[in-house]
Amino acid sequence: MLANATTERPAQAPLPPRVHATPAAKGRWLLGGLAAGLVVTILCSVGVGALPIPVSGVVAILMKQLGIATGAVDAQQETILLVIRLPRILLGVLVGAVLSMAGASIQGLFRNPLADPGLIGISSGASLMAVVMIVLQINLFTGLSALSGLYALSLAAFTGATGATLLVYFLSRQGGRTVVSTMLLVGIAVNVLCEACRGLLVYLADDTQLRAISFWSLGSLGGATREILSVAGPFLLIPLLLLPRLGRSLNAFTLGESQAGHLGVHVGRLKGSVILLTTLGVGVAVSVSGMIGFVGLVVPHLIRQMAGADNRLVLPASGLLGAIILTLADLLARTLVAPAELPIGIITGMAGAPVFLSILLKNRSQSHA
Amino acid sequence: MIHAQHLSYSLGGRTLLQPQTICVRPGELVAVAGANGAGKSTLLKLLSRDLAPTSGTIQLNRQALSAYPARDLAKCRAVLTQQNTLSFPFSIYELVMMGRYPHFDHQPTGQDLAVVDYVLHQTDLAHMTHRSVLSLSGGEQQRVFLARVMAQLIDYHELTHPESDSLMPKFLLLDEPTTGLDLYYQHALLQQARQLTRRGYGVVAILHDLNLVMQYADQVLLLHQGQSLAFGPPATALTPYTIRQAFGLDVQIIEQPALDYPIVIPITRQPHYQPLNA
C-alpha cells in the first residue's frame, strides 16, 4: 500500500484481479432450497392427522382445485384437506414467515441481534387487550354481527398491538425524529404498564377465564378457518412482500444512523416503514394465533449462521425458514397428544431454546479459538 | 469545492462553534486540529450535514448543501466517523460493498464489483474478504471502514483512466481516521488520502498528531473553544505560540534539512523520574 501510493500509474491502468465470484449465487441456492423445503413441508404435513392422506392424494386434490383432473379423488379427504387442514397450514406458513421476518427487521432497526418485536410493545399490548376481552367478557361486537363477534378477540388483540406500538413510537419522537435508543426505553415502560394491567385482570379472573388466558398466551393455530385466512392473509402478505425491499437500507443502518444517512438512506422513512410493517404483520399474527414465542428471535439467527448478515438475504430466507419451522411445530402441536392439542408456543419454546443455546455456545467456542 | 461562510453552531445556549469561513478546494487535504472539545467534530458534522448550522451557509460544488438529495450527496461526499460499532457478522466484502449502495438499486453492477475489488487491493484487504468484521481488531476494522468510504466515492472510470480528472469534485470527511491504526497504517491511510487529492478529491481530516499534520496537510485549521486560532499551511499556522494557545503545551519545532517538513516535539517541564530508594 505504501509502495502503491508513490509509484506512477500508467494512463490505462489494468483492472485489479477479481476478488471472488458474485456473492449472489450462494443466496440464490439458499433461497431456492428453502422454498423447495417449504413446498415439501406443506405437502407432507397436510396429509398428517386423524385421517391420513397420502402425498399423491394431496397432489390430486390440489390439481383438481386448479382444474386439472388427474384421477379419482376421495370426497371426505377433499373436504378435510380444503376446509380444515389447508387453511390452518397456510395460516401457519404466513404467521411463521411474518414473525421471523419481522424479528429480523426489528433486529436490524435496533442494531441488536437480540431484539424482538415485543420490545416496542406489540406483544404486551395485544396480550393486554386479549385478556381484557376474556375477563371483562365484552361483547361489543355481538350487536353488529355474529361473524365479527366471533373475531372480537382477534380484533381486540390487533388494536392492543397497534395501540401500544403507536404509543411507544410517538412518545419516543424528539424534534420530529424517532430516537431508537429512546424507543427501547419507552418500550420497556409501556411493556411494564401493560403487563401490570394484565396482571390485575388475571388476578380478577375466574378459573375458566384463567384457562382461556393461558391457552391464548401460549399460542395456537387451532382457530384457523377459511374466513380467518381470507381476512388475515392479505394483511400478513403486505409486510412479507415489502420488508425484503428494505434489506439494503437495513444493512446500511447497521453501521449507525448517521452513517446510513451518509450513504444516502432516508433514515426517518426507513424507521417508519419498519415499525409500521412489523406492527401490522406481528399485530395480525398475534391476533389470529396468540403469542408464539421465540420464532422471531431464533430463525434470523439460524439464517445468519448459515449465510451471514446481509439483510437482502436474511429477510426473505428468515421468512421461508420461519414458515417451515412453524408448519412443523404446528404439525407436532396437533398430533403429539391427539385428539387433544398442545399450545404451539410450548413447542417453539422447547425446540427453540436448545437451538439458540447451541448457537451461543458455538459462537463462544469460535471466539475463544 | 466546499465553501462554508460565517458558519456557527450553538446548542442549548452554548456556542460550540464560533462563526467562521472555511474553504476546502479540490486537491487539498485540510487538517483540523485542536484540543478535546474545541469543536472539531461539530465542524465535521456540519460539513457532513449531520447537524444544521445555527447560522451561515455551506455550499458544495456551488450548490447549497441542504438542497442536495440524500443519494446525490452520497455520491460526492463520504464520511468516516469515529464510532463504528457493529453487532452483525457482515463479511469485509459485504461491508465494503455497502459503500456502493448509492450507486446501484438491487444488484451491484460489474462496475461496482470492479471498484470494490480495486479498493480491497488498495487497502491490503483483498486476502481476507470473507472474514467477519466482528472478528477483526479495532485497527483492522478502521481499515475496512476506510475502504468502504473509498468505495463510495471512486467512480469506475477513475480505475480505467486514473489520470483524467473526475467531472465533479468529491469530498472525503475523516473524523480521527488514524485512531487504532499502527504506525505503518497511519501513514498508509494518509498517503491514500494524498493519492485521492492528486486525483482532485478534497479531504478534510481531524488529526491529533501534529507531525502527521505537518507531513500531509496542505492547510490546517487550528481550533480552540470553537474559535479559529489559525488557518493556513501547517508550517506557518502551527507555531509554538499557536500550539501553546490551543493545547496549553510548550513545543519545539525543529527543521530537518533532510525532510521538507518540520517536526513538532513537546517539551515537558516535569521533575525527572527518581528511583524509589534514592
UniProtKB/TrEMBL annotation, chain B:
GO molecular function: ATP binding; ATP hydrolysis activity
Keywords, sorted A to Z: ATP-binding, Nucleotide-binding, Translocase, Transport
Superkingdom, natural source: Bacteria
Keyword Transport: yes
UniProt keyword Cell division, yes or no: no
Free-text function comment from the UniProt entry: Part of the ABC transporter complex HmuTUV involved in hemin import. Responsible for energy coupling to the transport system.
NCBIfam families: PRK13548.1 (NF010068)
Protein's name according to its UniProt entry: ABC transporter domain-containing protein
Organism per entry: Arsenicibacter rosenii
Organism taxonomic ancestry: Bacteria, Pseudomonadati, Bacteroidota, Cytophagia, Cytophagales
